[in-house]
Amino acid sequence: MVICVAAPSFAASPRDGQLRGVRADGFYGHDRRLLHTACLLVDGREPEPIGLQPLGPDRVRFSSVHRYAGARTDDPTVIIERVRTAGEGETVLLRNVGVTTRRLRVELALATDLADIAAVKRGDPQTAIRCTVVQDATGLEWRTDTARSEVRATGDGALPEVTDGPEGGTFAWPRMLLRPGESRRIGLTVAGGAVPAPPGHPEAPRSAAPWTEPVVQGDRRLVELVRHGLGDLRALRLADPDRTDPEDQFIAAGCPWYLTLFGRDSIWSARMMLPLGTDLARGTLWALARRQGTAHDVFREEAPGRILHELRPADAEHGHGLRLPSRYYGSVDATPLFVSLLVDAWHWGLPDAETDALLPYAERAMDWVVETSNDDDDGFLRYYPRAGGLRHQSWKDSEDAVRDAAGRRIEPPLALCEVQGYAYEAATGLAGLLSSRGRVEASERLRTWAASLRKRFADAFWLPSPQGPAARYVAIAVGRGRKPVSGPASNMGQLLSTGILDADGCQDVAAWLAASELNSGWGLRSRSAALGGYNPMSYHGGSVWTHDTAIAIHGLCTAGCHTEAYALTDGLLDAATRFEYRMPELYGGDHRTPGSPAPLAYPAACRPQGWSAASGVALLSALLGLHPDASDRTLRLRPMPAELLGPMSVMGVRLAGATLKIGTTRSGGVKVTGLPAGWEHPTDPPHG
Question: What's the predicted TM-score (pTM) here?
Answer without folding.
Answer: 0.95
